[in-house]
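User: I'm writing a short methods note and want a consistent example. For Oxidoreductase, I'll paste the sequence; you return only the structure tokens, no commentary, since I'll be parsing the reply automatically.
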Amino acid sequence: MSGEKRFSGRVALVTGAAGNIGLATARRLAEDGADIVLLDIAADKLAEAKDAVATFGTRVETATCDVTDFASVDAAVARAEELLGPVALLFNNAGYQGAFTPIQDYSPEDFAKVIQIDLIGAFHVLRAVSARMVAHGFGRIVNTASMAGLQGPPNMGAYAAAKFGIVGLTQTASKDLAPHNIRVNGIAPALMGPGFMWDRQVELQAKAGTQYFSSDPEEVSKAMIGSVPMRRLGDISEIPGVVSFLMGEDSSYMTGVTLPISGGIL
Ligand SMILES: NC(=O)c1ccc[n+]([C@@H]2O[C@H](COP(=O)([O-])OP(=O)(O)OC[C@H]3O[C@@H](n4cnc5c(N)ncnc54)[C@H](O)[C@@H]3O)[C@@H](O)[C@H]2O)c1
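Assistant:
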């Protein structure tokens, strides 16, 4: 049929949808024809995100929801299905980077917060959406890990623990859900910038005062970029196509895989 796109007739749910990676990816999935549900805790940013996604002409709904609260997630997913129909595609992406502190000084409160949002929150979303996908007999899921989930960087103990958890969750979920025509993969971005996340990371690594980085943010930035085989930062725009690939049928024999998006193996 003319005008048919890769995800025409599919509903995609995106968490962390008001943030950089979530919004860019929601826009790409809408461009690929999907109807979109945008979930985020930042209610004030969701209206703007909705306008940005709606430019592609597919249906777009929003839900304010805290991924750390399972009841809030389950209610948001139920409402999304009432409004748009079965969720077929999930980008499980909400996250928080946490502090940059050596483990011996790391705040237990911040550690718990990072695990609550990045790991338990991702489980809540996976749990609520996959139960419905099993009932519908179809699903394509992409979880956002990080390069910090493939090798632990200094000063990021909570984040690394949570993101290693995401890689494990992706592998196990891929096995549990394969019999139900549901594929589960992940992405592991790193060194995305320029922008707030990059500046924050460089400044906080400099401030952490460890042997691994200079105390000068500019030197930290140079050293980090110097460790990338492609010798440059990645741009947010280099992520959505990978998610779309993992959700589409060009990756039909892939499940349980977390793909680095990092300018080469660090
Ligand atoms: N930007 C990077 O360099 C980078 C690198 C590797 C991995 N990541 C991961 O990518 C994902 C998206 O990051 P981003 O760069 O777009 O950051 P971002 O801060 O722009 O977006 C994160 C979004 O998650 C939302 N969120 C936070 N806590 C939430 C909660 N409890 N419930 C619901 N929503 C919540 C925030 O409101 C925000 O809109 C995260 O999982 C992050 O860990 C980012």
